[in-house]
Amino acid sequence: MREGVKVTHASVARRMGVKVGSVTQDLNEKYPVGQSAAERWAKFLDMEPWDIHPGIKKPAVTNEKLMRTTIREVLDAADTMEADIDAETIGMIASKIYVDCEKNEIYDVERIREKARTAIMFTTNK
Questions:
Q1: CA gyration radius for the chain?
Q2: How many CB atoms lie within 10 A of CB 71?
Q3: How would you class 65 by CB atoms within 10 Å of its CB: exposed for 0-12, middle for 13-18, buried for 19 or more?
Q4: 1, pLDDT greater than 50
């Protein structure tokens, strides 16, 4: 993995939509830009810092409504099926269902409920 990317006159000019000659300051042509410099340049260039530096990760966004629905349905399924499951297992099931629903864009409560019941059924011996 690279430690940084080179910010050159040409790359800044491209981002700003101006000619290379109009960018007059030395913009670290010889050395890679670190994360803090990438964050400053991102503000200057009106970009996101993870677009400049590969070491900066894009923040994850949690769909709070989907997370609440998933947890509620897993808890309801465990209660309905009278499953003897600890909190850690319930959290693991809810997390896996959440990731699957987020990835496949499933937001229907019935489908989430079905996934929760199936997961509880395979987790318990009942």
A1: 24
A2: 18
A3: exposed
A4: no
